[in-house]
Amino acid sequence: MERSKDWMDEAQENLEHARSDLERGFCNWACFSSPAGRGKAVKAVFQKMGANIVSPAGCGGRTRRGRSRITLGSKLVPARP
User: Fold this and answer.
1) For 7-75, where are the E strands, in sequence order?
2) Secondary element (H or E) of residue 71
3) Tell me: the pLDDT tens digits for 41-74?
């Protein structure tokens, strides 16, 4: 299922939360929220490109390290020498 808009919406919410925390002086929480938003924005872009975002069930939707796995399959562009 294509969820790039959902990922981007969640990313925007995380970044708004980080801005709010920063304005109120909660720098540690801003530092926590902004990378979460960035990661969700990256997932949105990859999914829009046709990637498969894998979040295994049973772990709160996350792998043991708290990360989703992104696979592009045949859509990967080979690196140029």
Assistant:
1) 52-54, 69-71
2) strand 69-71
3) 988 998 888 877 766 454 444 444 455 655 555 5
